[in-house]
Design a protein that fits this description.
By secondary structure, this protein is mainly α. The protein folds into two domains: 72 residues, no CATH class; 99 residues. 55% of the residues lie in helices and 0% in strands. Helix 7 runs parallel beside helix 10, helix 9 runs antiparallel to helix 10 and helix 10 crosses helix 11. The longest helix is centred in the last third of the chain and has 21 residues.
Length: 220
């Protein structure tokens, strides 16, 4: 603002503004018990900021022009940057970053393996158009069995990631039970689905989360 007023003003207005800049060190309100001599560094910096917005050709007082040249030679005049408003940035977190935020280290081979299985379950989610296709489920059926084995193997040593995998496994099984109709009632696959869902019905882990940070379409 000072630079704009000084540039557009007449000689009288420019003199008034230059006096304000020149007399800043003796007129500024200092901190309690702070000496005025020598000039505090923060006061000199403030004066340099004001001098930095003046155009040398527009300066009226020789004293101010001399001070401007002195500080300019010493490279003490900061660049007058255009003020900017709030900036909004966005970042899409990868699955790995989200797990790290939860305190789950993917440097642990067990956690890394369970994350792989969790991702492999996604085609069996309720949002997948092929979920009701029995052949598609059969092609991926081995993932269900792998998840059960991984949970048994890593459940105690890596409980956080195991809890996530368990929740996704239960969601996938519930979705299969509600959509697949082509299997005969005697199929061993139904025994596996039934065993997992019955266990989940009495299992308090994982607890429901009403405000999931990333909605993946799975039941809480």
């Amino acid at each position: 603002m000072l630079g704009a007023l000084h540039k557009s003003g007449d000689a009288t207005q420019r003199k008034h503004l230059e006096n304000l800049v020149l007399n800043l060190p003796k007129n500024v309100r200092l901190h309690k018990d702070e000496p005025r001599e020598p000039t505090p560094s923060w006061v000199e910096h403030a004066q340099n900021r004001l001098l930095g917005v003046l155009e040398e050709s527009d300066i009226v007082f020789e004293t101010v022009r001399g001070l401007w040249r002195e500080r300019q030679s010493a490279k003490a005049l900061p660049i007058n940057r255009r003020p900017v408003g709030p900036r909004v940035t966005s970042h899409t977190y990868s699955d790995e970053e989200l797990e790290e935020q939860k305190g789950i280290s993917l440097k642990d081979p067990a956690n890394k393996e369970m994350l792989r299985l969790r991702e492999a379950l996604k085609p069996l989610s309720k949002n997948d158009k092929n979920t009701s296709d029995a052949q598609e489920v059969e092609r991926r059926w081995s993932v269900i069995k792998e998840c059960e084995r991984a949970l048994k193997r890593y459940g105690e040593s890596s409980p956080k990631m195991a809890e996530e995998l368990w929740g996704h496994l239960v969601g996938a099984c519930a979705n299969i039970a509600g959509n697949v109709t082509a299997w005969p009632k005697t199929s061993d696959r139904w025994k596996t689905i039934r065993r997992i869902l019955l266990k989940a019905a009495y299992d308090r882990s994982p607890e429901g989360d009403e405000e999931d940070a990333k909605d993946e379409g799975w039941p809480s």
